[in-house]
Write a structure and sequence with these properties.
The protein is mainly α and about 250 residues long. The chain has 8 helices and no strands. It starts with a helix and ends with a helix. Keywords: Membrane, Mitochondrion, Mitochondrion inner membrane, Repeat, Transmembrane, Transmembrane helix, Transport.
């Protein structure tokens, strides 16, 4: 890519994820808390199943929001022209809508694959992190406790990446350019996985695993740990305010 498309090619398609990332994370964590309450199954404390199902629901909800951005991003990244010659994000979006509309052939192409990818990742991600965090003893030393959470978060991101990458490969094949122009080879999620496995072998379903792990391992650790600390901080802060109001009354 550097040789033929220039160094700026490494940042192709950067605008769609920038636009989607903040609302995506907000939806993920907000819906996770709501799904967690729903999947308590009458228990007073959440179980590993509660965390996993809540993560699955949050991932599916998140996928519905971000899929149009993913379609535009993949279209931009699959363009092999020099970065300076690649059409803008807005012109690519308009072209997709103009040619194929907003449905399953246009901006929402590959939605089921995105839902499977995000749902499975978050099911493992949240399920493992919150379950293991409760079983492993906490440290009184803040730095050690921070390191414990980072380690669990990193492992959660790596495991989630390893489990969901076949669906990520399917999503890229469906949303990216087809092998033959004018002919759609990759249509459905499971059909695409089966085609890749049959024609290219089992290892092809794990293409891109290393860069995915390098991104979502540390990224997942930072995201979960920051969320954990901020959530506890806000919860304690508003709890203190409620207690003061009760005392005043």
């Amino acid at each position: 890519m550097y040789k033929y498309e220039g160094i700026t090619s490494f940042w192709k398609g950067i605008l769609p994820p920038i636009l989607a990332e903040t609302p995506k994370r907000a939806v993920k964590f907000a819906t996770f808390e709501q799904y967690k309450r729903f999947f308590m199954f009458g228990s007073s404390t959440p179980t590993p199943l509660t965390f996993s199902l809540a993560g699955l629901g949050a991932g599916i909800t998140e996928a519905i929001l971000v899929n149009p951005f993913e379609v535009v991003k993949v279209t931009l990244q699959s363009n092999k022209a020099l970065a300076s010659q690649v059409p803008s994000t807005w012109s690519v979006t308009r072209q997709i809508v103009r040619d194929n509309g907003l449905g399953s052939k246009g901006l929402n192409k590959g939605l089921s694959a995105t839902m499977a990818r995000n749902g499975i990742f978050n099911m493992v991600y949240f399920g493992f992190y919150h379950s293991i965090k409760g079983y492993l003893p906490e440290y009184e030393e803040p730095i050690l406790e921070f390191g414990r959470k980072i380690a669990i978060g990193f492992t959660s991101g790596v495991l989630g990446s390893c489990v969901n990458i076949p669906f990520d490969v399917a999503k890229s094949r469906i949303q990216g350019p087809q092998p033959l122009e004018g002919s759609i080879k990759y249509r459905t999620t499971l059909g695409t996985i089966n085609t890749v496995y049959r024609e290219e072998g089992f290892r092809a379903l794990y293409k891109g695993l290393l860069p995915k792990v390098l991104r979502l391992g540390p990224g997942g650790a930072i995201m979960l740990v920051v969320y954990d600390y901020v959530f506890n901080f806000l919860e304690n802060k508003f709890q203190d305010k409620r207690e003061v109001q009760v005392l005043r009354q």
